[in-house]
Fold:
Amino acid sequence: MIQLYNVFKTYGGNIPALVDVSLVIREGAFVFVTGPSGAGKTTLLKILFRWENFDSGQVLVNGMNIGKIKERNLYLLRRTIGVVFQDYKLLPHRTVFENIALVQQVVGASYRALKARTWEALKSVGLSHKKDAYPLQLSGGEQQRVAIARALVNSPKILLADEPTGNLDPEIAHDIVKLFERANEQGMTVVFATHNHELIRKTNYPYIALNRGNIVRA
Amino acid sequence: MIQTVRNLAVHFRTTLNNLKSNRQVSFVTIATIAIAFSILGLFLVVFVNLDTFLTTWSREVQLVVYLEDAISGKERESLERVIAGNPEVESVAFVSRETAWENFKSTFSAKSEFLKSLEINPLPASFNVQFKQTRDRVEKIRQFAETLRKSPGVESLEYGEKWIGRFEKFMIFLKVFLLAIGGLLGLGLIFIISNTIKLSLYSRQDEIELMLMVGATHGYIKTPFLLEGMAQALIGALISVGVIKFVHLHMKLQFQDTLEAIARGGGFLFVSFSQVLFLLLASAAVGWAGSYLSINQFLNSIQKR
Ligand SMILES: Nc1ncnc2c1ncn2[C@@H]1O[C@H](COP(=O)(O)OP(=O)(O)OP(=O)(O)O)[C@@H](O)[C@H]1O
Ligand SMILES: [Mg+2]
Structure:
């Protein structure tokens, strides 16, 4: 469950990134966030796992009032959320396997569980044969799938995906949406930021449209 | 608990990797620490040895109470009773004028025909007072000497107060000097290590940010860098212990004979085991402090958005 009430956010300068944003995303929902470049999609997602602060308003995620969480307890919030970043954020000096396993390591999984779950995540995105490759040896679509496997490996309650089909051709984009649908079927709440209207039309999920930080359609 | 052990294993591996990937910077840091601790350690060796000399010498200090030639038998007896009655006194020996003169002559006669021909005895009689071996022995002697000075029949007192006093003052100065140098070096090293760790942190900034994003605790992020700082400082300190030992052995070979003569049997000492341990612990603390500063600053800079 995600709830925002009158959220404002400005980065240093004068242009606001979010203006009076209020919205509710129910548990288990699949929701698109759309809007032109600079509309505030990434900002919205970053606020949801408190990577960015907001200036005013209330944000509740999984029952936590995230504006009130102490810095040192933020990890509790972040462990309930999986994120696929717009720029992937794969570590170039670690193999595909290590990139995914890192997330398990961080939460203190046993080596046996770590291996099993990493392997499972790799298989679910169809990349088990690339486990020893380095990210830069992969195509864009493959890197994206590694990023997705990493976001799924800890079985989060919420999956935030920032432009995960960005510059992939329509067929691969469709496969990737399939991956999210499968996660959604298992009960994960999916928030999917994209400016690909084609995708939204074809899949028929609800969407939230932003423009210059304002909600224009919820 | 199992998780802690598991995390620790991961942290140790990360620390090793960090040290390896920042080889050059780590090397410079370790070398700097080794040099700094070597200087400090050599001062410590000098201090330890001087301190030992002082104790050896002060152990031999005895109080000599010279008596007036005109002292009466009664006065002498009461004086002896007062001295023997002091609980700090171990033994008191009376040396008559004649014995003193004989001793003196037998010590120096070979060198001087003049002494043999001297007919009068210029030496006073004395009590030679040995004190029990306690830590504040010299101070006890000093106090007792002051109470005796005014007693009837006492001509003068002697216990080497002048040079012991001076030596003690010098040792106090040396102690303060050592502490000051130790403190300054410690601060300098904290600064150096914090800089090295800062470089290490920035070289892994992406990884740290990612780990924070996926729910790493602050402790999880900090531990490998704290270990890295402590490892650098400890390695540096261990090298310095080697350097000190080497210099010590060299000095011992060169100067043992001379030193033995001065220290009357005491050899040239190395710093004690507990002092080595202290040096190592201090270095670990310095390494920890240096890393701690950088990591906290770094985490704050990431979170201030
Ligand atoms: N770190 C930042 N510092 C300053 N301004 C920022 C920062 N990140 C985003 N902005 C500004 O905030 C506004 C919203 O940016 P945001 O990244 O949320 O847009 P977006 O909808 O994700 O765009 P895109 O589709 O291009 O990814 C923009 O005007 C952007 O310039
Ligand atoms: Mg964006």
